[in-house]
Design brief:
This protein has 405 residues and is an all-alpha fold. It has 21 helices and no strands. The protein has a domain at 7-120: Four Helix Bundle (Hemerythrin (Met), subunit A) (Up-down Bundle), CATH 1.20.120. It has helices at 10-29, 35-40, 42-58, 65-83, 90-132, 138-152, 158-167, 169-177, 184-200, 202-211, 214-221, 224-237, 239-247, 251-256, 263-279, 282-290, 293-302, 331-346, 352-362, 368-385, 389-401. The protein starts with 9 loop residues before the first helix and ends with a helix. Residues 312-334 are annotated as: Disordered.
Length: 405
């Protein structure tokens, strides 16, 4: 009985398999339907060379036995296609077309088998390293996590999902994310991997996020990366996640990001507030208002990083003049949007009160009567927070007209 491939052999095996995968991928798109292309096909040449080279390597791993069979089948198909060279007539033409189709099919099977092996090896390695929880090479673990995130970001794959579930990888990612003894970089990378898993298949993994300590850990970390992951999770899971944030008492901590000394944290905190405003139900919006959100937004809009989009013609005066000139192909409207985008890049808190109000107005979490009630409450709180009648008039006008770009 052959010994399975050892871990020391894995890099060599991976190198051969990556070359096989690339060649088989090319062959699927260009299966060489005629003899001239057949003789010059780099993909076929590479596969035939690698078929001979890889035989001794692949035979050591039972997981690669099917791949060896596919390679042998491919070699036979290519030989048959070569034998048909120079023959003419309908029968020969149909035979070549059938061989070409079979070559493309087998090349696809080869690529799938190789990707399955790579997935098994990478998840096994990542799981083993995460389980140890004492990392001799932090950079290597970050690389493994990044590779895993990239892989599942390519789209849903049932075999890959089965590997993730069988390995209990989500629990290991969560454990390291919540472990204060792990470095910040590792915890953040685990957070990004969890976010990618939710995008990979929300229905399967969302329950683990809602029932586990992931959200609390992301909020407590209060880093730019953890807030990005939190925003991503809110966009993916929507109202159920905002409900969990509110019920677990995380709203005050999120509002506190707006007062952070780090500008990037403030800006990301604003993004998080806007996401909650869009998906949040009545209880979450009430919790934010109780925490003095509107007063803080007024202060941010008043700051040097704030400003008013009303000065750029976003809001009208009610006489319809704000729409003049837009009919010419929408050119003026496009220029205005471009100016607003540039302005918001350098003034991220511009019109932030009205932008929050718009999120409530167009969002998914509130009933129509709740939207109207919150709009009136926001106007009251704006007047209380403003330091002058002019400031109040500007912000109230923005809220009444709507703002979000």
């Amino acid at each position: 009985m052959e010994e399975p491939t050892s871990k020391d052999d894995s890099p060599r095996v991976l190198k051969v398999l990556e070359a096989l995968k690339q060649a088989s991928h090319q062959l699927q798109s260009h299966p060489s339907p005629n003899s001239e292309e057949l003789n010059s096909s780099s993909a076929i040449k590479a596969l035939l060379e690698l078929e001979t080279e890889s035989d001794a390597i692949l035979s050591k791993d039972p997981n690669l036995s099917s791949l060896s069979q596919h390679l042998s089948e491919l070699k036979a198909l290519i030989e048959n296609l070569q034998k048909s060279r120079g023959h003419h007539g309908l029968k020969s033409f149909l035979a070549r077309r059938a061989s070409t189709h079979s070559i493309s099919r087998v090349a696809g099977s080869i690529e799938s088998e190789i990707q399955a092996w790579i997935d098994r090896e990478s998840i096994d390695t990542l799981t083993r390293v995460l389980r140890e929880q004492h990392f001799d090479n932090e950079d290597e673990l970050i690389k493994l996590l990044s590779q895993f995130e990239d892989r599942i970001s390519q789209g849903f794959n049932r075999e890959l999902q089965d590997l993730v579930l069988k390995s209990k990888l989500f629990l290991l990612l969560e454990s390291n994310l919540c472990n204060p003894n792990c470095s910040k970089r590792i915890r953040e990378s685990c957070g990004f991997a969890i976010g990618a898993l939710i995008r990979f298949n929300k229905d399967v993994f969302v329950g683990q996020v809602l029932m586990g300590p992931t959200i609390g850990s992301l909020v407590t970390m209060a880093s730019s990366a953890s807030i990005r992951v939190l925003c991503s999770l809110i966009r993916s899971i929507k109202s159920p996640l905002v409900d969990e944030i509110e019920s677990s008492g995380e709203i005050p901590k999120i509002i506190s990001f707006l007062s952070h000394q780090d500008l990037e944290i403030q800006v990301l905190g604003m993004d998080c507030v806007l996401e909650i405003g869009y998906f949040g139900r009545k209880e979450a919006i009430e919790a934010m208002l109780r925490e003095g959100l509107i007063k803080r937004l007024v202060e941010l809009q008043r700051s040097e990083m704030g400003g008013d989009l009303i000065d750029m013609g976003r809001y009208g005066s009610g006489d319809g003049k704000e729409n003049e000139g837009v009919g010419a192909g929408g050119l003026e409207g496009g220029n205005r949007e471009s100016r607003e985008k540039r302005f918001l890049e350098s003034h991220p808190f511009a019109s932030c009160v009205a932008r929050f109000a718009v999120q409530l107005e167009v969002g998914e979490g509130l009933r129509q009567r709740e939207r109207r009630a919150f709009k009136q409450e926001i106007l009251v709180r704006v007047r209380e927070a403003c330091v002058s009648d002019a400031e109040a008039a500007t912000i109230v006008a923005e809220v009444l007209w709507g703002s979000s770009p």
